[in-house]
Amino acid sequence: MSWLSDLFGVSKPVIGMIHLPALPGSPLHDTTAGMMGILERARRDLDALQGGGVDGVMFCNENDRPYTLRADPVTIAAMAAVVGELRSLIWKPFGVDILWDPIAALAVAHATGARFVREVFTGVYASDMGFWNPSAGEALRYRRAIGAEAVRVLFNINAEFAAPVGNRPLAEVARSAAFSSIPDGICVSGPMTGVPVRAEDLRAVKEAVGPLPVFINTGARHDNLADLLPFADGVIVGSSLKVDGITWNPVDPERVRSFMAIVRQIRGE
Questions:
Q1: Tell me: the pLDDT tens digits for 111-148?
Q2: CA-to-CA distance for 50 and 9, rounded, in angstroms?
């Protein structure tokens, strides 16, 4: 657990999501607002999250629907541009997530000074994006090749919008990933963005991986934190911090403050 406490300075850190509007090249991109519109929205969300007391933030191209399994060069460039423009305003540890391309995420993280990435690194899936076959070996060799070993890697082991090809229990998947793929943390998800993870899945994964940090990856809400957070070492949260709890809306500062008040109570602060 040392890297978590060293990086975030608290137990059970909360990482708030900055879901960027659709980037150039994606079907939902607003060509009228352009990059300046994306940048301004990201700045407001960053201010709301940091001001509301989260322990870290993560930038993600959540609105680049429908997702692809390999990022376009313009996606990588736009993500790096946004993070680079905001870098002087970021005073919490931050990460990046490029759906669904671990190598692209590592490249942007290394270039911008991000401290961690979250991606699907392992497994084989039948997904909404097609047949999904990531390679942790390729991604971590790339991290080594570009000198980005300081970038922590959080493995999402039950991918959203997808079903695994195979029927191994989730705890066995987690134990195998921890043994063979050297993650810095394990993320446990519900079936899609905003849908809660099951407490029994969190408990089983945590028992399987021991001291390796386990994160709640989807569906953390004000009304289920007390049931879920005791089984996890941290939480990544997006939708429930948005206006009306809707993923695509801006971050709601009051929701952030009230969420963090519950977290602090659970942490005994």
A1: 999 999 999 999 999 999 999 999 999 999 999 999 99
A2: 15
